[in-house]
Amino acid sequence: MQNKKKEHTEVKSKLHPKNKHKNRYDFKALITSCPELEQYVKINKFNDESIDFFNPEAVKTLNKALLKHFYKIEKWNIPKDYLCPPIPGRADYIHHMAELLATTKDGPIPTGNQIKCLDIGVGANCIYPIIGNREYNWTFIGTDIDPIAIQAAKHTVESNEALNGKIELRLQKNKKNILYGAILEDEIVDLTVCNPPFHASAEEALSGTLRKLSSLRKEKVKDVTLNFGGQSNELWTKGGERKFVRDMIRQSTQFSKSCFWFSTIVSKTTNLNSAYEALKKANAKEVKTIEMGQGTKTSRIVAWTFLDKRQQKQWIKTRWE
Length: 321
Description:
The chain has helices spanning 27-33, 56-71, 87-105, 127-136, 147-159, 202-217, 232-235, 240-252, 272-281, 309-320, and strands at 42-43, 49-50, 116-120, 139-144, 167-171, 189-194, 259-266, 286-294, 297-305. It is an alpha/beta fold. The radius of gyration is 20 Å and the shape is globular. The relative contact order is 0.12.
C-alpha cells in the first residue's frame, strides 16, 4: 500500500526571510545545475523527492548542488570525514549578521568588499565566507587550527574565479588562541562569525551524533559509520562550548577597537548565562541575542561590541558609507 503524500508548508518559516533556502528543495532545478545529484534523489515513503541523509556522499553532493545553483560556485569539495554542514542554517547566520549591521547603521545593509569579516573555525567547507561573499560581496578572513582544512578551503577559493582575492585563509598555529593571531596588528574587521565545537569530549560528541542519527531515523542507531562527518576539533574541545565562548569573550577585549561586532553561535541554552556573565565582566557596551531556528533545532547568535554610540557612528561613517 502506497503511503499518503505528506502535507508540507512551502516555506520553512523559521529561516530568515532573505534566506535562499527558505523554500523546500527543488530537486529538479538542483539536478539541472548539478547532474551528479540525480543518482542520490529517490522518492521517500511520503512520495516526496529526497536524498538519504545518512549517506555522506549524498549529503555532500546536495551541498555541491546548492552552492552551484544558488551561489554560482562551480567547484567545491571537502576531504573525507570532514564536517559537511547544512547550508540553510549557515546562510541564516550570515543574513542575521547582515541585518544586525543594517540595524546598527539605521539604513540599508552595508555591502561591498570594504566590509571585512572573520570566520573563526572556517573548516574545510568554507561555507560562511562563500555565502557572505556571494550574497553581500563582503571579504573574509578564515582561520582554523587544522592545516588540512585550510588547504581544502584554499583549494575551493583558488578553483572559483568569483572567490579569488575575496577570502584569505590563515592557519591558527596556537590551539589555545581564538582571536590572537587571527586579527593581525593594526588590522580592522567589521564582524566575526563562529560556530564553535560544542561538545566537551570525544565521548560526548559520539553520544550527540548517535542521538542525532537516532532522531532522524526514528529508531536507535548504534553504528557511527553513518556519521555526517567531522574531525575532533570540529566537534569537541576541552571544556566544550561554554569554555570556548568564555575564552573568545575574554580574548575579544584585546581587540575592542579592531572589530565592531563580535559574534558566535551558542547552541545550548544552558550556556547563555555563562556567556552573559563573561560579557558583563568584559564590559561589553552592547550585547545582542538573535534567535535562529531550522526544523526542530533552535540556536542563537550572541553578538557584542565594545564601541560606544559615538565610536559606532564614527566607524560607520569611516567604513560603511
